[in-house]
């Protein structure tokens, strides 16, 4: 009995600590610096619209290495993080503070997450080879529904009517797209390949929706304060291990031997092949840092919404630059995606106003209490 009571007490203590940490996040959200951090990370996510677009350009003009394209999404851009980290470490050394923010336990958990993110990148890269970028982006927006579902069970995510409405609208957009699947099949892609791409995109969305709240849970269990160096270190560990998985796949698939030949035969030219690869890797890395920032500074649901926001941007890039068709159902799916995102933003605006009003009432009550005494 005493053992059971101790386990229950430990569980209650852990739950209390987690709730306290989330309340601290809510208090921080009123800080202008915290708002600017969220705005910066959201901007980084928006820049990530170029990632799926360049990935589709790679496949359209003769690229076919799926493990290479997976590596570009998570593992190839990690050197971008070294400059800000080196500046941060230099400042820490000057102030005689601890060099690393990340703990061994958190680093171990992030390494496992990195391997799973690497698998998710492979699923998305495989689907990108067979689907138009506008189609795959809308399908991948279903990750918000998966994120909401898993966040409810894993991190006890609270929902408002507006966030629920947002999830429903974004999911309906993907369903509308599925009603006409196959009619926008690219030339040279068979019906079976198109179907595989369709299924692989949904699988990637489901796995991504699971990994986002898992990452939030891992951070909450670490009980560390969010800092810029910690965000960079988490991003670096995840990128390193996800990239490691993709590199193993590239070695097994003999991608390194095939890359020079693929570059020579690339439709846009050999030099542009390497430029495209480098730019795509950097854009994906910038986007990933923004997503981790939204996740750690706010919540898994906001990170999922940030990913869903990319849908209309990728749609426009695909239609304008790749001349992909924008039929009625795809236009409906795009409209539902924009409506869903607007619903979420409005709900967050209402929630912030409500929190400010409650804080004002508490402050007023606190001022009136001494006068009554």
UniProtKB/TrEMBL annotation:
Membrane topology field: Multi-pass membrane protein
UniProt record similarity statement: Belongs to the purine permeases (TC 2.A.7.14) family.
Organism the protein comes from: Dioscorea zingiberensis
Any single GO CC term annotated in Swiss-Prot or TrEMBL for this entry: membrane
Region span, Disordered: 1-27
Residue ranges crossing the lipid bilayer per the database entry: 35-55, 67-85, 106-125, 137-155, 162-179, 191-214, 226-253, 273-294, 301-323, 329-347
Gene3D superfamilies the UniProt entry points to: 1.10.3730.20
Official protein name in the record: Probable purine permease
Compositionally biased residues, Low complexity: 14-24
Intracellular or extracellular location(s): Membrane
MF term (GO), any: purine nucleobase transmembrane transporter activity
Key words, A-Z: Membrane, Transmembrane, Transmembrane helix, Transport
